[in-house]
Hints:
Number of strands: 0
Radius of gyration: 14 Å
Helix content: 55-70%
Shape: globular
Oligomer: single chain
Number of domains: 1
Order of helices and strands: HHHH
Largest sheet: none
Structural class: mainly alpha
Amino acid sequence: MDEKEFIASLQAEIRDRFMQLTDKEKEFIRSNVGTPYATLLRKVLGEKVLGGLRVAPVTKKTGLGAR
């Protein structure tokens, strides 16, 4: 397995684990985008791993979904 395949494998595993989180857990992660915590985590995990992952903007729930 070369480096590209290894990184793609890591990214796929991160995506799969993220999708298994509850909505509340996903929102917690999304709420940290741009914070010092997220910046530090990006330094630890590396741009090669996290650079290929899509980051969705933080959205506020409205209507019945906000309950």
